[in-house]
Amino acid sequence: MRTLKGWSGAAALSAFHQALVVILINIPSVSFGLALGWVSLVSGEAADEGDKGAVFAAVTTFLACFVAVPISAKVITYGRKYAVMAASACFVLCWSLKLVSVSASDGWMIGGRLAAGFGGTAAWTLAPLLAREMCSEGWCGAAVSALPLAHNAGILLMYLAADARMHHRTVIWWCLGVSAFHFFVFMFIPESPSFLAAKGKNEEARRSLAWLRGRSTDSPKLDAEFKTLPPAEQGDESSLSRALDLFRDRQRRWAFAVGFVAVVGQEMCGILAITQYAERLFMLTRDRAAAVTIAAAPEGPLLLATPARHALILGAVQLLASALSLYLVERLGRRPLIVGCAWAVGLSLGGAAGAVWAGKAEGAAVAVALAVAVDAAGLQAAPYALFSDMFAYEYRGCATMLMMAGACLGNAIEVVMFPAVVVHSGVAASLLTAAALTLAYAIFATIAVPETRLKTPEQIYDVICPATSQCHSVRVSNKLKSGTRGEKHSVCTSF
């Protein structure tokens, strides 16, 4: 009985420590969500610049994210812990510059956007890495999925601040306080045990692992997990040589290609643009509905009268669905969520386009909310969990940086492309474009994306591109050989 109680106490302490780590490594992601929400609101940072100002602000931030990728790659070589603190330092700088810009020139505001981009890259890169390295196997998928949840929480908090009509200076002070507090608190969090082991600091790695698992350093129950930590690195390998080594192996090369498209394709499907310009989107939808309603019945009521409140509801729906994804990504697995949610999001966006074209504002709002909810419940989080499963410690950081570069560039293109389509062809055409891109992504996911939950990278590689296969392609299905019970062969196809 005493042993059972001791085990339960250690398990509870381990759960608390891991949950605390997951929360703290995602605070910079909350700050990035706050920054993006701040520039997206009609009454926010770009209020005086109009719609073009909102697009310029978003593009500036995401291009800064892209530029920051090689810098982040260098920073994480000095330690995951210090890189997370550097991310919060970027947001301290971001909000400080924006605080100055309230009573000064716009140059300070642009500097704040650039700082937010640098911090955002670090946040979205480090959170999946640390979640994978510091959490136990049963927690990894949910821990990685907490990244979109934190980001969406930041956006919703900014929507709430706007709905409460808080003064700009007050909002910025609160955001600055969050980043400064996180910078101080994270000093007391241990370094990643995987990073310490890779640097040959085995004693420190064991102490870090013991703290995360709620046990003493001499506990024999740590031995099995300690042996799974990466071996000490031989010399300092440059990022370029690590990237070349990543692509030198055919199986890793194909795994990276599948994971890269899974993440970047999801980022470019249009949901980001919808949430980034949600208030403006609902304003345009209301105007379209008003035109159709007046043409049909001049005395008819105008629907969707409060776009800001609809954007707030959309943010709340997205946050709740993101919380659900923490459960679904481990319960259902990565592939079912990606494939099922991609089809559902694409069809919902197509329905929203039809509703806008028909002047059904409320129907369009419901369809958009459904698309955002389904995206947040699985499609937003599962690709990141899948990607983190695909690589061992040696290549995970390099692969994540390359993936993040593609995601940042894709985000920058998306926040320009969709407003351009709206200007030239209308909201319905923009939603239809998003639907087409998402359905194309759904076809790819159905064909090429494997299940990665509870599988080693080698097992995943054998599913994507078997080592014995002579075709340089991706395996998309397994079928039983006729007449041979229990044996499988692979069917390969290029994509």
From TrEMBL:
**Which organism encodes this protein?**
Pieris macdunnoughi
Pfam families assigned to the protein according to its UniProt record, in alphabetical order: Sugar_tr
- Where the record annotates domain Major facilitator superfamily (MFS) profile, the positions are 7-453
The superkingdom of the source organism is: Eukaryota
Q: What is this protein called?
A: Major facilitator superfamily (MFS) profile domain-containing protein
Tell where it localizes: Membrane
Q: What is its main location?
A: membrane
The record ties this protein, via SUPFAM superfamilies, to:
MFS general substrate transporter (SSF103473)
Lineage here is: Eukaryota, Metazoa, Ecdysozoa, Arthropoda, Hexapoda
Query: PROSITE patterns attached here?
Result: MFS (PS50850), SUGAR_TRANSPORT_1 (PS00216)
Q: Name one GO molecular function term.
A: transmembrane transporter activity
